[in-house]
């Protein structure tokens, strides 16, 4: 056995999986929405400005589901944190990459979706 704790591994996994489920949930909501989904908090998308609402919503859904992947991976790797510190370190690095550079990639991708589907 490593020198990590089982409780720490469980907490890490729960936090990561909770985030991942949230992002998948947003993706599912986007996929099922009949009106164009919004990206920015407190905004609404004018349906008349979207050229293909199902395509726009699908692109948003894929974006959010893909964004959940590093959180799923970090949770899985974090589950093994009790085996050694390397697992917790790798999971933490994945979370850092998902949170900081990842959020900028998310905004970049949404801007591309806007250009593709909006007048």
* Strand elements, count: 0
H-E order? HHH
Summed up, the helix count is: 3
| Main beta sheet | none
Q: In percent, how helical is the residue content?
A: over 70%
Alpha-carbon Rg, integer: 17 Å
Beta-sheet strand percentage? under 5%
Termini separation comes to: 58 Å
**Mean pLDDT rating:** 91
The coarse silhouette is: elongated
Instruction: Give the helix/strand class.
Output: mainly alpha
The low-confidence runs, each spanning 5 or more residues with pLDDT under 50, are none
Structural notes for this entry:
- By secondary structure, the chain is mostly helical.
- Helices cover 72% and strands 0% of the residues.
- The longest helix has 33 residues, at 85-117.
- The N and C termini lie far apart (58 Å).
- The mean pLDDT is 91.
Short key terms for the protein model shown above:
single chain; mainly alpha
Topology overview:
Layout: H1 6-32, H2 53-78, H3 85-117
In short:
This protein is 72% helix and 0% strand.
């Amino acid at each position: 056995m490593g020198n990590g704790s089982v409780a720490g591994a469980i907490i890490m996994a729960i936090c990561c999986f909770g985030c991942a489920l949230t992002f998948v949930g947003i993706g599912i909501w986007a996929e099922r929405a009949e009106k164009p989904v919004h990206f920015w908090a407190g905004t609404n998308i004018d349906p008349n400005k979207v050229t293909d609402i199902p395509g726009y919503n699908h692109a948003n859904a894929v974006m959010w589901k893909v964004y959940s992947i590093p959180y799923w991976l970090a949770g899985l790797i974090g589950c093994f944190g009790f085996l050694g510190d390397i697992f917790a370190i790798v999971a933490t690095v994945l979370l850092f990459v998902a949170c900081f550079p990842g959020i900028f990639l998310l905004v970049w991708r949404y801007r591309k979706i806007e250009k593709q589907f909006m007048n």
